[in-house]
Design a protein that fits this description.
Layout: H1 8-30, H2 39-58, H3 61-69
Length: 70
Amino acid sequence: SSFDSHRPCYLFLAIVASVTYAMIDELHQAFVPTRDGNPRDIFVDSLGVYLGIWFYKWWPPVELFKKRFL
């Protein structure tokens, strides 16, 4: 297959896209009257991205599905 989601370039792209979205979201929240943009939230979101990719690499969804349902 030409698409292998475990290739580092796809994982790096997922990280960059997710962290960029987190930064834009916090910037947006800075202009909403009842919200505030907090750099700590960017860190928390980035940590979630890292953990999600770590779990994806070490326990691929196909293996989890086989263990649970087959």
